[in-house]
Amino acid sequence: MSECIFPISEDSDFSLANLPLGVFSESGGHPHIGIAVGSKVLDLSAIYDLAAWTLPLEVLQKSTLNAFIGLGKEITNGIRQDVREWLTDPNSIIANRPRSLIDQAKVAMHLPIDIGDYTDFYSSYEHAANVGRLYRDPGQAVLPNWKHLPVAYHGRASSIVLDGDPIYRPTGQYRDQHGKLVFAPTKQLDFELEAAFVIGRDSEQGHPISMQQAEDYIFGLVLFNDWSARDIQKWEYRPLGPFLGKSFASSMSPWIVPLEALEPCRLEGPLQNPAVLPYLQSDRAHHFDISLSAEVHLPDSGVHTLTKTNHKHLYWSMAQQLTHHTSNGCNVKIGDLMASGTISGREEGSWGSLLEMTSGGTRPIQLGNSTRDFLQDGDAISISGAASVGNCRIGFGSLVNQIVQAP
Questions:
Q1: Adjacent-strand bridge partners of 402
Q2: pTM of the entire structure?
Q3: Rounded CA gap, 169 and 152, in Å?
Q4: Nearest CA to 21 among 65, 74, 56?
Q5: Where are the domains of the chain?
């Protein structure tokens, strides 16, 4: 790949192979659409008059990406390709309009999409088995239906927040250590390392999306943290599953990496045994090699790596998740968000939640001169992720959130 017209650090998440999309503002101005490249944000509206694009200017000036995504992949990927070519041409419209490139340090990022609906899957077999062994007979850690369909629950879109936003410790009902029922701030606040995909096309109610069509409906991916209050969750989840133990907050990264940028990272997923039903089968590889990690920032003892894992460990692919989601005729809309569920690998050190790392809080982990069973006020969780294409890094940027007391 040709070199950029300005230097890009080799360890930058935002190489020319990436060019993710987001929504930013300058100095309190109106949020609008940009592309991340190296340490810069390219303001698409600032080159519109020179670009000869057919889309209306107001689409680039909107405060969410929904209308832009709705133009379709032929247009959105075409714009990214134009930008890539211009960024390698010292005589291009970008080179001749340097004010279109803004330091990322000087902008504020915004939630990039208007999220109408949010679904959280449970697609990591290792995570499901680890949690099942904590709460059920080890011989029945994973329930009989799990290997036949992608399990999920419908989450709360209104409480999805962005990188940098605080996470307020929730209050709820649970049994305390003495078995007494209390209504109090959670004592078992946890993170969940996940990725999520953004729906890029509306579908029609009553018309399922097939495995062959599924990726046409996936615009791109973000990092995701589905915060969980384990004590509240444990008390409330039977018989209907997650509710207040999850709905208080989930967080996502601000830059959406288009699915097409990850094409070179495509690979086969885990062997699915028993074989899935025909509607979930495909002769194409639908998994992606994306390294993921989580760190905790402690007020009294610095930064510590909690886990290193990979998106490829998911048992159920994104295409299978979406296909099953719509198999009953449920429709999806542009901007809908679908998260993977906690991503865990086979070995200790690749597990995506403190629930697993601490055996439900019974074995606190040592972090410098501190220990943690679950998260305390002042702790912050940082999730990062990137794929590699040759010498290029296709990363997702920042997802850091600190836990604070509820106001």
A1: 380
A2: 0.97
A3: 24
A4: 65
A5: 21-110, 118-404
Question: Which H, E and C letters describe the chain, residue by residue?
Answer: CCCCCCCCCCCCCECCCCCCEEEEEECCCCCEEEEEECCEEEEHHHHHHHHCCCCCHHHHCCCCCHHHHCCCHHHHHHHHHHHHHHHCCCCCCCCCCHHHEEEHHHEEEECCCCCCCEEEECCCHHHHHHHHHHHCCHHHCCCCCCCCCCCEEECCHHHEEECCCCEECCEEEEECCCCCEEEEECCCEECCEEEEEEECCCCCCCCCCCCCCHHHHEEEEEEEECCEEHHHHHHHCCCCCCCHHHHCCEEECCCEEEHHHHHHHEECCCCCCCCCCHHHCCCCCCEECCEEEEEEEECCCEEEEEEEEEHHHCCCCHHHHHHHHCCCCCCCCCCCEEECCCCCCCCCCCCCCHHHHCCCCCCCEEECCEEECCECCCCEEEEEEEEEECCEEEECCCCEEEEECCC
Within 10 A of 19 (CB to CB), how many other CB atoms are there?
24
Quick one: fold of 21-110?
A: SH3 type barrels. (2.30.30)
CB-side neighbour CA atoms (13 Å) of 179: 0
CA distance 110 to 22: 8
1, pLDDT greater than 70: no
User: In DSSP terms, which residues pair with 401 in a beta bridge?
Assistant: 381
Widest CA span of the chain, in angstroms? 71
Q: Which tokens is 63 given?
A: 């405060």
Both structure tokens of 138 = 């080890």
Per the CB < 8 A criterion, the answer to whether 399 and 383 are in contact is yes
The DSSP bridge pattern shows strands 337-339 and 193-199 to be antiparallel
HSE value, Cβ hemisphere, 13 Å, CA-based, for 87 = 30
CATH architecture of the domain with range 118-404: Alpha-Beta Complex (3.90)
pLDDT in tens, 117-174: 999 999 999 999 999 999 887 778 999 999 999 999 999 999 999 999 999 999 999 9
How many other C-beta atoms are found inside a 10 Å radius of the C-beta of residue 295? 18
> Among all residues, which ones are annotated catalytic?
127
